[in-house]
Specification:
The longest helix has 26 residues. Helices cover 40% and strands 20% of the residues.
């Protein structure tokens, strides 16, 4: 079967290369730029593109060496084509297209969120569907119903900040650095999650009542800011309690709304992926709720929650064995909904 893929990921601030055979990772290399962007408090797009250009050649070389394969064993070259930072995506896609052309391989542009979804397969195979996916990253917070390979229906999303973005912004205002998720998790582990009461971001429906699974995190971020302002002048900020109280609300909201959505949809499996899926309190709370509710829980392995190329490779392999390929005229896009991922393999390039 044609299914060994060299995959590249450059949609944001991680440069990554992997060689994947089906669901099996032969090699995976990630070079994070987070520390450098941390000096600016967030990702600087122009800097990210430049660092991807510098990092990719060595990462690809290392991936081949670690996998112990040569070009003759590679069937296709894949790269994240959407969504993400346009300049950053262009580096990965241009590199992948060039290598595919040079070595006479198939090229596949991959949807970044389909990649995240596939990260859950790196431990156990996913059921054929239907199942519910909670996708929580720095750019997205959404609930997606999957009815089969490539058949996605978005049931909810955040109307403002993504959950990871909220972690990053709150970490910045608490002076904890970037990326915020791991920093908040570390500080919160010593704090009291009950000390401060923060809002749960419920969305009013136009006709009355509340949207049962919609997400909103910008009010929560503002509430933390107000609390910090109220505490100013009262000695050192209780950082651990602030971080723990914030983290507890995000975790409760994500876990409670996902489980409720799965129940309402009559689905028996919840899959959780994306950078924020690495959060230990979230993993614990999901485990508890899913057990109570009789839901099967599949969470991406810790090392593949954040951006990586192995997940892009798994997604590409699935498309490849289904007969898909992208044209070399395919470009990149900062926005493309997961529901339209198959446009990347159509007869006409969507961008
Ligand atoms: O999936 P990802 O690597 O990149 C995007 O596609 O956005 O997600 C990055 C996000 C960042 O906002 C980061 O703060 C968050 O995931 N994150 C975490 C944790 N580790 C990473 N959030 C909460 N707890 C963590 N342990
Ligand atoms: Zn991501």
């Amino acid at each position: 079967m044609r299914s060994v893929v060299l995959a590249l990921e450059t949609s944001c601030d991680e440069s990554a290369a992997a060689i994947v055979q089906g669901r099996r990772v032969l090699a995976s290399r990630v070079a994070s730029q987070a520390e450098e962007h941390g000096h600016y408090g967030g990702v600087v797009p122009e800097l990210a593109s430049r660092r991807h250009v510098e990092a990719l050649p060595l990462l690809i070389e290392q991936a081949f060496a670690a996998a112990g394969v040569g070009w003759e064993e590679i069937d296709a070259v894949a790269a994240t084509a959407a969504p993400g930072l346009v300049g950053a995506l262009l580096v990965g896609v241009t590199t992948a297209k060039t290598l595919a052309l040079l070595h006479h391989k198939t090229f596949l542009g991959v949807h970044h969120l389909e990649g995240h979804l596939c990260s859950a397969q790196l431990e156990n195979p996913l059921p054929p569907g239907p199942f519910l996916v909670l996708l929580v990253s720095g750019g997205h917070t959404m609930l997606v119903r999957v009815d089969g390979p490539g058949r996605y229906r978005q049931l909810a999303s955040s109307v403002d900040d993504a959950a990871g973005e909220a972690f990053d912004k709150v970490a910045r205002l608490l002076g904890l650095g970037y990326p915020g998720g791991p920093a908040i998790q570390a500080v919160a582990s010593r704090g009291d999650p009950q000390r401060f009461s923060f809002p749960r971001g419920r969305l009013r429906r136009p006709g009355g009542g509340f949207d049962p699974y919609g997400f909103s995190f910008s009010g929560l971020k503002t509430a933390v800011l107000r609390q910090v302002q109220a505490l100013e002048g009262e000695g050192p900020l209780p950082l651990a309690d602030l971080a723990a109280s914030f983290e507890a609300v995000v975790v409760e909201v994500l876990a409670q709304r996902s489980c409720r959505c799965a129940a309402d949809q009559g689905l028996d499996t919840l899959v959780v992926v994306g950078g924020v899926a690495a959060n230990l309190r979230l993993r614990g709370e999901l485990d508890r709720r899913c057990r109570d509710q009789g839901l099967r829980l599949l969470v991406a392995p810790l090392e593949y929650c954040g951006d990586n190329a192995a997940m892009i490779g798994v997604a590409a392999c699935e498309r490849l064995v289904a007969g898909a390929a992208s044209g070399l005229e395919l470009g990149v896009s900062s926005r493309l909904s997961l529901e339209h991922a198959e446009l990347l393999y159509g007869a006409e390039a969507p961008f």
